[in-house]
Design brief:
The complex is a heterodimer.
Chain A lengths: L1 E5 L5 H25 L4 H10 L5 H26 L7 H18 L8 H27 L3 H21 L33 H19 L1 H11 L1 H6 L4 H28 L10 H11 L4 H25 L4 H22 E5 L8
Antiparallel strand pairs in A: 1-2
Helix pairs in contact in A: 1-2, 1-13, 2-12, 3-7, 3-8, 3-10, 3-11, 3-12, 4-5, 4-6, 4-10, 4-11, 5-6, 5-10, 7-8, 7-12, 11-12, 11-13, 12-13
Chain B lengths: L6 E10 L2 E11 L4 E5 L6 H8 L7 E6 L2 E3 L4 H7 L1 E4 L11 H8 L5 H14 L15 H13 L5 E5 L7 H16 L3 E6 L2 H7 L2 E6 L2 E6 L6 H9 L17 E10 L9 E9 L3 E5 L6 H9 L7 E6 L2 E2 L5 H7 L1 E4 L14 H9 L6 E2 L2 E2 L1 H14 L16 H13 L5 E5 L7 H16 L3 E6 L2 H7 L2 E6 L2 E2 L3 E2 L5 H9 L2 H11 L1
Helix pairs in contact in B: 3-4, 3-5, 11-12, 11-13, 13-14
Classes of the chains: A mainly alpha, B alpha/beta.
Amino acid sequence: MFTLEARATQSAYASWLSPLLALALTAITGAMIFLAMGKAPGVALYIYFVEPLTSWSGLSEVAVKAGPLILIGMGLSLGFRAGVWNIGAEGQFIAGALLGSAPAVYFFESTNPLILPCMMLLGILGGMAWAAMPALLKTRFNANEILVSLMLVYVAELLLVHLVQGPWRNPQGWGFPGTRMFPDAALLPTFFPGYRVHLGTLIAVLIPFVAWFVLTRTRFGFQVRVFGSAPLAARHAGIGSTQMVWATLLVGGGLAGLAGVLEAASTIGQLMPKISPGYGFTAIIVAFLGRLHPVGVLLAGATIAVTYIGGESAQISAGLPKAVTGLFQGIILFYLLAFDLLTRYRLTRVSARGNAA
Amino acid sequence: MNDKPLLQLTGISKAFPGCIANDDIDLEIAPGEIHALLGENGAGKSTLVKIIYGVLRPDQGRLCWRGEEVAIDNPASARSLGIGMVFQHFSLFESMTTLENVALALPQQDLDQLRERLETTARDYGLTLHPDRYVYDLSMGERQRIEIVRCLLQNPSLLILDEPTSVLTPQETEILFATLRKLAGEGRSILYISHKLEEVRSLCDRATILRGGKRVDDCSPAEETAQSLAEKMIGRRVESVKGHTAPAASEVRLKVTGLSVRSDEPHGTNISDVGFSVHAGEILGIAGIAGNGQTELMNALSGETGRPQAGRIEILASDASRMGPMARRQLGAVFVPEERIGQAAVSDLSLVQNSFLTSAFRMGFVSHGLINWPGVGQYTDEILDKFDVKATGIDALASSLSGGNLQKFIMGREILQSPQLLVVSQPTWGVDAGAAAAIHEKIQQLISAGAGALVISQDLDEIFALSDRIAVISQGALSPPRPTGEVTAEEVGLLMGASRTTSETASHVHA
């Protein structure tokens, strides 16, 4: 018999060591899976984890994929720190993309340079509006934000499908679902010809530093930390729980919405029935892998992005199924949670009872 | 009585990560003896009795029961030897009756038979118990009686009681002592854990004194004075604290009228129609047994539980009834709740961050939403220095401080904000004697400087030592405050123990 016993002290290193160990064990487990599938594990792992980082185009693709993950993950980590469990970032991402794309859809011949800032603003508002629903229901009726935010994902997805097949469908699109291509003025500038790295990527890299400043230097950031780790102390210090639920959900939703419009206005350039490979859900892994810390989220976003790009190249050059990407992300989360459990608890053996009693 | 000790411990040691709780302790309990285990908080008393009761296992040392070496692996084996224990925190189900709670702890048996045994045992030892009353409806003293009777039904040779009087009124304490003497007269032994010296002197035959995990002395408490016992327990001379000098002024710092608050806890106590005022230069003490509405009153005063159901709270002549905690602080009040970890302080934040928690606005540490951390750091240094807080520095985590040091830190954080009103609950609960004296002195200094204070405490000695006027809270109602010189501990004790029925009769008499 084994039992879990709470540790008296938690090592500060362990908290940062566990993501690294989780990644290492994921690689080992992955190698075993590749072996079972009859692939050379060394080659497969190389294609998966290393190859994306060996070329400029690979790095550029990793950065492009990391952008939305970092933006969403950053917003989520703020909420998770405060104990507000927003699981519906995917829906807020789509809502942001929808509202943010409206100017590009309606003014499809616009050349006005102001259209882009306007879209970004609307994207943020769209994400916020979607997150406001769980916030309102939680603060007014004590509805669980996990369920409400998650269910709203499906509403957002259906709304997107409805729009791109109906009112917003490209009249010259031969009946395919999807909006018109955005005008050039509504597309994010790229920095290097031939590479897809764009302004959104830069914003995504800067946001964690802003978040770090907010968390360490502002009263709001302090409130988030206190609210999450000691709700009664927060109440004692006059930090209202209604305000914190609203604030963290709006910030999380706003960043997810921004990520959504940046994605629509860059790599896709239009709205389609499916605009996200599950960024909103994968960002939950990013937030925890990054220890809810701004710099951690930045690194974790890049790491998880590698699994996306590696998964794509593994499909092409090693003939591996696409499901391997999701498999890897799942294994990482599994090991991470296991190590986190072990940093907080120790496994002890319980001697067989009965001889004494 | 024979000469062979009932229980003999030799060289018991037990270490936890970061501290040695018991260091080579010897202890001998004779049959029929009431033996005191005396020591401050953190002296290792609880660890030692947990070892005797099989909750913990010693790292080293031997336990002999009736002369034979035994290994007590768990509470069940302790009970089968004949050891019973009444813990400080009761293990009773509030939503079950007395009889059901007793039945749960015993091997399965007929409830009617058990009811009879329960009533006989209770009567034999002078303990009044109603088998069919629900526990949530019972006073702490009555709950403790359930625990004691539950032990007695198992016919123990040794009964261990951990700080049994901390929840009792003076009258209930007398009943308990009579029961314990009767048990000892039957040849049962009692191990009595306490830090209250007068009790130990009047009740116990022998005392083993622990300090810092070591056994420092073994004596006959009746032959000692309270002063000499205290010196052995603390390890140095204790000095009594001087009172404050400022006379009570007419200026009202806190005025509460007709306050009613519904508790947000299940089985919590509602506050009903409470009224009192605190003037500048005086301390109003509110005595009462835990769970009689102190927490609800404290949170209502600090503004943590929102708007009260009825009544008015005025802080420095401003109506604060609808204000949040920070706005009330801005009026000139500071609050120290009973819960240190999790409410007054956040354990996984540093001391600097914890000082910012309540001083943010009163000390002007925020401008345009940005925190002036260097300023907070200086303030924290000042707290550590002036309140003699032992910590590795201002970046130490709150969780790294001992109970006494953390309370000194919290008191420092509030008092150095130079408040006009201090509201504090259990200022020295679980704090060692040295720190308690320091905290009392700082409160007195603040009052001498012209502030007013409301002190809520379960500790009658503390209430009498600090207060100018005393009121008693019982079942959520407050007795009219009376000057300290005009009330006795017995009168206060009666008010503390006033049950719902007697307080109703009392109010009829007044009417």
